[in-house]
């Protein structure tokens, strides 16, 4: 039975050692709760670091034994690995970059190398437990390389990846020296998930610009696989938070804390110590609020919980000092014998205390500079059983996309934060309740269980969809079958697309001139009197004539405008009018004016607007505009608009490669038919083929072809094998005349 393996940097358990004794306490994180009902089932497993360096083998064995019964398996990290992989590359390179703090990022080769090694360490550990068809769900930025490492060893596994922190815009992501390797690592997954649509959009744009893979509706085609990128906003365990908030213990705590705080208004602020959370900026806003609204002196308290985090990293130590100083300054300036404006706690507190804080606060101030999602604000909403309270939320938190009933602020706009505090503290109760109820409805529905099942369902869907998108590989058995029917047939038609099927694409089209091997192959294939070999191209006829005109081949040029049968001259099938060209050219010229780097190519019966030299992104944008514009004009004409590889082509509708190939199918007997193509235009060829034809596409992307081969090299090998079957009867240099 296939099982599920969850992998994250940390296991959902906290391991500690007291007086030589190991103790384990379950982690209260949202992820652990959400996945708890899954990883504990049957053979499922959670693999990760237990959070403590353990070097002694006997102790390691003890840990393995202790947590095995809870379906967990540890990856042990050395002191140096923790320093370089976790604190170093993960938290000093990736974390600041992904949170738009690239000025804090360090780029050190040795940290990168340890990051690669530790990802490999996780991979090796997983491979000890995984079977070929298992589902593996990898979490977060510490393990970006893992999906591809796993894919290499387990090509059929179902691999999901979820990133809990933001994915930055291409302009920021490109600053990383190892940007391509990181993206390639992630692309090993079948499904890549982010919290928001913006993260997903940024990722797709980086993949497109740095690796060159395009995408449609979130699908990325790598040439050999298709994978999906989608957004899954993570929810909380709503029931758990509302139940804890209703418990007698929490009610008692709330009463006690209210008394201790002493003011009628309480603003809460809860975060891990992190510069992405905007803690100093929040304090400055509170200071300005006190300055601007003296009527609140003695009447409002900011209860601020900062949870220690990453204190071995220099930037976090500096931040701690900054926060301490700010709190000291504000309290020093405003407090009196009865009132301390800020109650500051630098520690971790139990869930019940947190819940009492949530309950007693009229306002939650959640103002991160950048946050993947932010769960604190969701927990606050879930704890507000009487629906009284206001959430002030940063637009830069993923959660702001769902919680539009919060007072949304830009965390850099200190005046707006101050005004939002005033608005929140003076908001009528009825209004508070309306907003809170709306937010609660959203969070109840999109809770953590919903998030897990949505991701898992989507992952299964991707696997099914991949199967339907893929053509089968032309393996040896199919080749034998094809070769037998080739041999038995007394008449054969062989259609071969030139670029992409017989030769690789080159930077410039004229560099794809046929080499000696290809000329020899085409010559021997067409030398057999049973064969008619038709080479098809969208290239100009003069180009095809120059390269292949001397062989006894049939040729289709310019998508089927021009046909040449062996032994005779070029003919056009239709009497085409090209009086449309002058009008369309004027439009294309407008687009050239607006798009530096683009140019127009005029073919005999078509016009092409090329944008491969245009700034990435701008070219695609203008191309979409142009296609819409032309499609509108083409509705009542016989023109066809083709949105191609870095080019938009306009041609007369009656011209296409499918029509051209039908011409041969109608004219010549064909007991055996083979067609090989490589891109969108060649689907027309496949559509025109009889049912018994062998249709092959190069690359394994969506196609109606029956089979695929990996590229022109494999196509040539396959054709060579076919030819060899009959070389005894027909020596390779025997020539046919038309
Ligand atoms: C990352 C992303 C994304 C805090 N103090 C205490 C305590 N907490 C709990 C909160 C909340 C969690 O920690 C913090 O979650 P956040 O989402 O706010 O932030 P990150 O830790 O940075 O998490 C973030 C998240 O991943 C999930 O994808 O939302 O954007 O950065 O649950 O309640 N819990 C207890 N005591 C504390 O003192 N018990």
Automatic annotation (TrEMBL):
Pathway annotation from the record: Glycan biosynthesis; trehalose biosynthesis
Catalytic activity: D-glucose 6-phosphate + UDP-alpha-D-glucose = alpha,alpha-trehalose 6-phosphate + UDP + H(+)
SUPFAM superfamilies in the cross-refs: HAD-like (SSF56784), UDP-Glycosyltransferase/glycogen phosphorylase (SSF53756)
TM annotation in the entry: none
Pfam family of the protein (one): Trehalose_PPase
EC numbers on record: 2.4.1.15
Keyword terms, alphabetized: Glycosyltransferase, Transferase
InterPro entries registered for this protein in UniProt: Glyco_trans_20, HAD-like_sf, HAD-SF_hydro_IIB, HAD_sf, Trehalose_OtsA, Trehalose_PPase
Domain of life: Bacteria
Similarity comment text for this entry: Belongs to the glycosyltransferase 20 family. In the C-terminal section; belongs to the trehalose phosphatase family.
Subunit structure: Homotetramer.
Name used for this protein in its record: Alpha,alpha-trehalose-phosphate synthase
Species: Pontibacter populi
């Amino acid at each position: 039975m296939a099982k599920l393996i969850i992998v994250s940097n940390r296991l959902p358990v906290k391991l500690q050692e007291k007086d030589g004794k190991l103790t384990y306490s379950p982690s209260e994180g949202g992820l652990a709760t959400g996945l708890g009902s899954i990883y504990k089932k049957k053979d499922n497993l959670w693999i990760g670091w237990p959070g403590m360096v353990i070097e002694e083998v006997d102790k390691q064995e003890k840990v393995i034994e202790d947590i095995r019964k809870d379906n967990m398996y540890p990856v042990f990290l050395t002191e140096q690995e923790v320093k370089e992989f976790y604190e170093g590359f993960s938290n000093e390179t990736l974390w600041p970059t992904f949170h738009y703090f690239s000025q804090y990022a360090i780029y050190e080769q040795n940290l990168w190398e340890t990051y690669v090694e530790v990802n490999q360490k996780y991979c090796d550990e997983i491979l000890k437990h995984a079977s070929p068809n298992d589902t593996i769900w990898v979490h977060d930025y510490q393990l970006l390389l893992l999906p591809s490492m796993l894919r290499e060893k387990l090509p059929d596994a179902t691999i999901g990846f979820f990133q809990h922190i933001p994915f930055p815009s291409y302009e920021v992501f490109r600053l990383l020296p190892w940007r391509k390797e990181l993206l390639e690592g992630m692309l090993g997954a079948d499904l890549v998930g982010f919290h928001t649509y913006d993260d997903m959009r940024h990722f797709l744009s980086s993949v497109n610009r740095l690796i060159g893979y395009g995408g449609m509706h979130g699908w990325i085609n790598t040439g050999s696989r298709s994978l999906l990128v989608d957004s899954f906003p993570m929810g909380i365990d709503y029931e758990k938070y509302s139940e804890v908030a209703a418990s007698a213990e929490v009610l008692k705590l709330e009463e006690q804390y209210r008394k201790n705080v002493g003011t009628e208004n309480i603003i809460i602020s809860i975060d891990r110590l992190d510069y992405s959370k905007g803690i100093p900026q929040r304090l400055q806003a509170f200071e300005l609020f006190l300055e601007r609204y003296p009527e609140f002196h003695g009447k409002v308290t900011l209860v601020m919980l900062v949870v220690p985090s990453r204190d071995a990293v220099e930037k976090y130590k500096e931040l701690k000092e900054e926060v301490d100083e700010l709190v000291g300054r504000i309290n020093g300036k405003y407090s009196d014998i009865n009132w301390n404006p800020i109650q500051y706690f630098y520690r971790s507190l139990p869930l019940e205390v947190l819940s009492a804080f949530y309950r007693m606060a009229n306002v939650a101030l959640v103002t991160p500079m950048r946050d993947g999602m932010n769960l604190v604000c969701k927990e606050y909403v879930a704890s507000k059983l009487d629906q009284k309270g206001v959430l002030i939320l940063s637009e830069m938190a993923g959660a702001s996309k769902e919680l539009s009933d919060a007072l949304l602020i830009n965390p850099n706009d200190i005046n707006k934060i101050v005004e939002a505090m005033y608005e929140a503290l003076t908001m009528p109760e009825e209004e508070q309740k309306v907003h809170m109820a709306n937010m609660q409805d959203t969070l109840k529905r999109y809770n953590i269980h919903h998030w897990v099942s949505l991701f898992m369902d989507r992952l299964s869907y991707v696997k099914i969809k991949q199967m339907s998108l893929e053509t089968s590989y032309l393996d040896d058995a199919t080749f034998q079958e094809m070769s037998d029917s080739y041999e038995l047939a007394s008449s054969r038609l062989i259609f071969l697309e030139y670029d992409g099927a017989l030769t690789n694409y080159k930077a410039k089209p004229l560099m794809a001139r046929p080499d000696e091997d290809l000329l020899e192959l085409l010559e021997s294939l067409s030398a057999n009197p049973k064969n008619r070999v038709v080479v098809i191209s969208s290239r100009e006829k003069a180009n095809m004539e120059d390269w292949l005109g001397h062989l006894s081949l049939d040729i289709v040029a310019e998508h089927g405008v021009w046909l040449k049968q062996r032994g005779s001259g070029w003919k056009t099938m239709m009497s085409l009018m090209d009086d449309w060209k002058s009008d369309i050219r004027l439009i294309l010229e407008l687009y050239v004016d607006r798009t530096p780097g683009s140019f127009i190519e005029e073919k005999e019966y078509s016009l092409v607007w090329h944008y491969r030299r245009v700034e990435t992104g701008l070219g695609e944008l203008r191309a979409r505009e142009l296609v819409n514009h032309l499609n509108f004009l083409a509705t009542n004409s016989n023109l066809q608009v083709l949105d191609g590889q870095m080019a938009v082509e306009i041609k007369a509708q009656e011209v296409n490669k499918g029509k051209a190939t039908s011409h041969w199918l109608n004219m010549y007997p064909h007991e055996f038919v083979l067609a090989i193509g490589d891109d969108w235009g060649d689907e027309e060829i496949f559509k025109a083929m009889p049912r018994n034809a062998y249709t092959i596409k190069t690359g394994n992307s969506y196609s109606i072809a029956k089979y695929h081969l990996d590229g022109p090299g494999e196509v040539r090998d396959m054709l060579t094998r076919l030819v060899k079957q009959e070389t005894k009867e027909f020596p390779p240099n025997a020539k046919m005349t038309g």
